[in-house]
Amino acid sequence: MVDALAAVLAETVGQRAGGWDLSGEIPEDALRALGTRGVLCAAVPAEFGGQGLSALANGELTAHAGVLCGSTRSVMTSQGMAAWTVQRFGDDKQRVDLLGRLTGGELAAVCFSETQAGSDLSAIGTRIVEEDGEIVVDGRKVWATAAAYADLLLVMGVHGAGAAVAAVPASARGVTVEKIPGPLGCRAAGHSNIRLDSVRLPKDSLLVGSRLPMAMLGTIALTYGRLSVAWGCVGMLRACLAAGTRHVRDREQFGRPLADHQLVARHIADLYTLERTATHACERAAESWDRQAPNLASDAVLAKYVAAGNAAEGAARAVQVMASAAAEDGHVVARAYRDAKLMELIEGTSEICQLILARRALEDVP
Amino acid sequence: MSNTDYAGTLTEEAARAALTDFLELRTKHVWEPATDLFESGAVTSIFAMELVVHVEQTFGVTIEGDELTMENFRTIDAMVAMVFRLKAGARRG
Ligand SMILES: Cc1cc2nc3c(=O)[nH]c(=O)nc-3n(C[C@H](O)[C@H](O)[C@H](O)COP(=O)(O)OP(=O)(O)OC[C@H]3O[C@@H](n4cnc5c(N)ncnc54)[C@H](O)[C@@H]3O)c2cc1C
């Protein structure tokens, strides 16, 4: 199953990722093809039209996407996180309807961040108000991955004393999506800022179970995203390891292969170690998810923290050993170098992960 | 711990005891059945998610849609009541 879906990815992305990075755009038909063929949110259960992959299998698929194209993998993370949010917070009718659409070729973005609310989601100012049997959504969102392509926006806002998530069609009146022109990395992932001006929607656009305190809502939704980003980082590390090792084996300087120079070999050893330890942290977190072990939330934070840090470090090592051979935009290692840095910022920056992990460690003190 | 530990024979008392044990183990606080968990600040958002998953796993229930409210997790008693409501619902369904 994973192999078949990985083959769909390989066939759709092909050798085009470098070009997409340079143009800042993935052709929409490619994304829709990946969506209808089940790749973008493969963990959705079969009863809702998904592939029903385990977290471990979905993780391997996500890593595969990460090897090929960081932008496509980012879109996959958004779609998967949107689907998980619907699965967790929707009622039966919302699950059937929305998951059917997300597995049927429609694309989704998750809109949490705002100018004043980055790490601190409690500062969210977007409001979701119930009025005359409808809901009205008002606010501004920033940096929503995949929103430039999306049909559906999952928007988190203040609702009553807590928060809630509304499923907002991108075509709804009052919605304006503006693509961010030059992101540092994952350049074709369609990051956008969004304005929601008195967007009126039927009441059932509010995910029934999402009326929770902001922090809890964020944690549940982001746990999927963290695991997905972590596996994406494993993919970047694998791409860097593959390119780096091939290069140091085949290129000679001072009369012998680069790999025979010990200082170069050390970079390769470190790159290999970074890839392996990131993989192990991800496998562990995916197993916790699949067993539904209560520590799955902190394991996902750990995996994301380790994998993002490793990817940023590993990509820098790969650039170092390849030197000018990797110093051109569009090259797989150049892309990883830019993409990986951003992975230390999203779904909880490395510092926010550290705060969570420190708290976790302190809870364990007898 | 898995739901089979309680197959068929779950009493409210056992459920209360199991939840109290888990909470005390993880938070290092002593919890009365009616104490507000969230007011205390001892329950982080990460832990809140772990609590949801723990309740689902231990008692073999699925907490989705409108059962997923803060009120249902606010006290040990509220969680016990929810578990029994969900179990009764599953038997009827
Ligand atoms: C490529 C990319 C994709 C994104 N995709 C999405 C998306 O799909 N949906 C969405 O909603 N958002 C998305 N975001 C936004 C992302 O979630 C935020 O950028 C992130 O949460 C950090 O917020 P911020 O940028 O406002 O930084 P800030 O919160 O302002 O942080 C700035 C710095 O201060 C540190 N800091 C902040 N608070 C603390 C603290 N308490 N202790 C220690 N250090 C602290 C941070 O770690 C960071 O180093 C994306 C961002 C990027 C770059």
What does this structure look like?
The complex is a heterodimer of chains A (366) and B (93). In chain A, the strands form 3 sheets. Chain A has a 4-stranded antiparallel β-sheet with strand order 2-3-7-6, with no helix packed on it. Chain A has 11 helices and 9 strands. Helices cover 53% and strands 15% of the residues of chain A. Chain A has helices spanning 2-13, 17-23, 28-36, 55-68, 70-89, 92-102, 214-250, 262-291, 296-322, 332-343, 350-363; strands at 108-111, 127-131, 134-144, 152-159, 162-169, 175-179, 192-202, 252-253, 256-257. Chain A has 3 domains: 2-107, Acyl-CoA dehydrogenase/oxidase, N-terminal domain (Butyryl-Coa Dehydrogenase, subunit A, domain 1), CATH 1.10.540.10; 109-210, Butyryl-CoA Dehydrogenase, subunit A, domain 2 (Beta Barrel), CATH 2.40.110.10; 214-364, Butyryl-CoA Dehydrogenase, subunit A, domain 3. Chain B has 93 residues and is mainly α. Chain B has a single domain (9-92), classed as ACP-like (Non-ribosomal Peptide Synthetase Peptidyl Carrier Protein, Chain A), CATH 1.10.1200. Helices cover 52% and strands 0% of the residues of chain B. Chain B contains 3 helices and no strands. The longest helix of chain B has 17 residues, at 76-92. Classes of the chains: A alpha+beta (366), B mainly alpha (93). The complex binds flavin-adenine dinucleotide. Flavin-adenine dinucleotide is lined by residues 78, 110-113, 118-119, 143-145, 183, 186, 191, 342, 345-346, 349, 351-352, 355 of chain A. Flavin-adenine dinucleotide binds at residues 78, 110-113, 118-119, 143-145, 183, 186, 191, 342, 345-346, 349, 351-352, 355 of chain A.
Features:
heterodimer, A: 366 residues, alpha+beta, Butyryl-Coa Dehydrogenase, subunit A, domain 1, Butyryl-CoA Dehydrogenase, subunit A, domain 2, Butyryl-CoA Dehydrogenase, subunit A, domain 3, 3 domains, 4-stranded antiparallel beta sheet, 3-stranded mixed beta sheet, 9 strands, 15% strand, globular, B: 93 residues, mainly alpha, Non-ribosomal Peptide Synthetase Peptidyl Carrier Protein, Chain A, 3 helices, 0% strand, binds flavin-adenine dinucleotide
